[in-house]
Write a structure and sequence with these properties.
- This protein is mainly alpha-helical.
- It has a domain of 136 residues: Tetracycline Repressor, domain 2 (Orthogonal Bundle).
- It is elongated, with a radius of gyration of 20 Å.
- The model has no long low-confidence stretch (mean pLDDT 92).
Length: 222
Amino acid sequence: MPTGSEPDPTPITDGVFFTVPDPLPRGRHRLPRSEVLARQRDRLLIAATELLAHGGPGAVGVKPVCSRAGASLAAFYECFETKEDCIFAAYDRFIAVFIERLVAVHGEGRTWEEYVGAVLDSYFEVLEQDLVVARAFQVEMDSLGPEARRRRREALHGLGQLLHQKHREWVGTQGEVLPEAAYIAALYGVRQLASDALDTPTPDLPGTRDSVAVWVSRAFAT
């Protein structure tokens, strides 16, 4: 009895973490080689991310990535040495977008608690905007081994240091803040709860954000 074909991976949302590049012109063209490689590289990053979100690390082979990206094996190896290099480059893009979004949250006219709430809003909103990329790098990424976990630690520790420094500047010399490790621990907790939500058929990120906001605002109240 036929069971039907395996569903295709869900595509990323264009313009959130990745921008789908324009297709290369057919036949001879005047695009510089650097532009050709840049477009192929982005297509490979997107394809690897979609496959990772769909089937985990086992689904991300060089040939499947090239097939999905419409790129040759030669093009892949001009951009990356291994499939892991490709995935980690995509993860670095994911983190760079997050840092850009979180740094852009302003504190003018807000209390510290309101600022923390705005940071949480920004975090959960960007996850909600592209659930494919969110699942790839918050659920499936950790199973790629020590290098993946090292990159996760570096990202979370860096964000924790940023929030700790921001809070110290906020309260000035008259106030006290928790140790830096407390901010890192809070980020680990928030990330894990978001990852648990993403690892369900219908992620409820707004509900997760609301439950997280209660204890985070109390823990870091000034």
